[in-house]
UniProtKB/TrEMBL annotation:
InterPro entries: STRA6-like. The lineage of its organism: Eukaryota, Metazoa, Spiralia, Gnathifera, Rotifera. This is Uncharacterized protein. Keywords: Membrane, Transmembrane, Transmembrane helix. The chain crosses the membrane at residues 52-70, 90-107, 195-217, 263-288, 325-351. It comes from the Eukaryota. The keyword Membrane applies. One of its GO terms (molecular function) is signaling receptor activity. The keyword Aminoacyl-tRNA synthetase does not apply.
Length: 473
């Protein structure tokens, strides 16, 4: 029995071996035929069989099916919200519902102010765009009407009041009295409001600059005399006016604050103010964008945490954001424009008249204190290794500078003595007087002129040096 079984297995294995050999020979013959006369389809099929595996196809199919199953509910929800005109970021809760209200939990149903709360708390995007367009178009007219005492823009003021006050008040009440489950910075309607406010502010800035350049330029020549009288009146409060013994009008060059032609300083001041305001606005907008992107990707480390004890402060910060921003913008523009105009007029006065006594005296009074503060701050901010770095003369460079600065600040009279001493020489264009020589027996006096280089210094004789010293003292 075992012998017959063994013979059957042997015949079967031999048949299997012969079948495999025949199949291998046919494959080799076919490969030789392809190699001798290859076709593009055969080569492509050969490469495809080597590169693509069934396992890769199965894994890719399983991944796509899993991803589709995970995304399908989210996709259906977004499509439903889009078709029903709902918010895509969160589902707003009912205003003051019984299950979310903290203090009056015994109420059953809903409670709220007797007005269109639902409409005003979920403002339609078209309505918001229309409100911002009207506000941005008539902001300059509102400011002009406020200045001239007329109020004609009732429609714009009404829209701005309704949108800003009620919408932000409802948001504050919802955040403070209810328990929303979403973090307020995750609501990307707030960054869009910020961008809308920035658009209004930049449009207002453009219109203000155009009006300043178009309406004020023709009147600058007429107000130069008035500005000069105002500057003289202000300077006379602190410094005496130059005496007029001849009975003639005092020229602007002899005034304590000579006012040059205002067209150049006014132009520079306007564009300097515009540059500073735009830079500050862009920096603030970049910070808002950075915080928005961080909150979108889940990084809210720079955003302060919410605390129920600070809801009142949150309300104060968020209430009337647009109105406060535009108000601070206008006030900041006015301040920067005024200071820029004063600085530009002073610089133009220095260039035109070579001296502005009021500015000179002000700088002499304030510079010692400012230098003391700046030097002190610089030495405090220095690293320890640089502050106490020992030099060959046992004192660091910063220590020597600090001692020299303190000495000069405490003894400002030395500058006046030096100036008076140089004025007493009665010699034109004397800059430096050096009496430094290695040999004390052959000491010489070198007079350096202001318009001559050091290499062309004139070396005077001993006789002239004695006469010079006698004249000097």
């Amino acid at each position: 029995m075992y012998e017959s079984t063994f013979r059957v297995m042997t015949y079967a294995l031999n048949f299997r071996l012969q079948f495999c050999c025949l199949r291998l020979m046919s494959t080799l013959d076919k490969a030789k035929e392809i190699s001798q006369d290859p076709k593009l389809v055969d080569l492509a099929w050969k490469i495809a069989k080597r590169s693509v595996n069934l396992s890769s196809i199965l894994i890719a199919a399983a991944g796509l099916i899993t991803k589709w199953l995970l995304i399908q509910p989210i996709h259906n929800e977004l499509v439903y919200k889009y078709r029903t005109n709902q918010s895509l970021y969160f589902v707003p809760y009912a205003f003051l519902s019984s299950e979310h209200y903290l203090y009056l939990s015994f109420l059953d149903g809903y409670d709220g102010m007797p007005m269109l709360v639902d409409f005003l708390s979920h403002v339609d995007r078209k309505f918001a765009a229309f409100v911002f367009a009207v506000c941005a178009d008539e902001l300059l007219n509102i400011m002009q009407s406020t200045v001239y005492g007329s109020a004609k823009e009732v429609l714009t003021l009404s829209f701005a009041t309704i949108y800003d006050w009620l919408d932000y008040s409802i948001s504050i009440i919802t955040q403070g009295m209810c328990e929303p489950d979403f973090y307020p910075t995750d609501d990307h309607r707030f960054p869009t409001r910020v961008i809308s406010v920035y658009t209004s502010v930049l449009l207002l800035l453009y219109q203000v600059v155009i009006q300043l350049c178009a309406k004020v330029f023709p009147q600058l020549t007429a107000i130069e005399d008035s500005f000069q009288l105002l500057a003289d009146l202000f300077s006379s409060m602190f410094f005496p006016q130059p005496e007029n013994n001849d009975g003639e009008s005092v020229s602007p060059s002899t005034s304590n604050f000579p006012v040059p032609h205002l067209i150049g300083p006014y132009t520079v001041a306007v564009f300097l103010t515009l540059t500073l305001i735009v830079i500050q606005s862009l920096i603030l907008l970049a910070n808002v964008r950075r915080n928005s992107i961080q909150s979108y990707r889940g990084d809210d480390t720079e955003i302060p945490r919410r605390h129920r004890s600070e809801y009142v402060s949150y309300a104060v910060r968020n209430f009337h954001f647009a109105a406060h921003f535009i108000g601070y913008f206008i006030w900041g523009f006015i301040l920067i424009a005024v200071f820029s105009l004063i600085i530009c007029i002073a610089l133009d006065g220095f260039i035109t008249y070579e001296s502005v006594p009021l500015v000179d005296k002000t700088l002499k009074l304030t510079m010692p204190s400012l230098l003391f503060i700046f030097f002190k701050k610089k030495t405090i901010d220095l690293p320890t290794n640089e502050k106490y770095q020992i030099k060959p003369n046992s004192q660091s460079r910063y220590t020597r500078k600090w001692k020299l600065a303190v000495f000069l600040i405490r003894n400002p009279i030395l500058f006046f003595f030096r100036k008076a001493y140089l004025n007493q020489l009665n010699m034109n264009e004397i800059r430096y007087i050096n009496d430094d020589d290695q040999d004390s027996s052959k000491r010489r006096l070198s007079v350096y002129t202001r318009r001559m280089p050091i290499a062309l210094s004139s070396i005077v004789s001993d006789d002239y040096m004695k006469s010079f010293e006698m004249y000097r003292f």
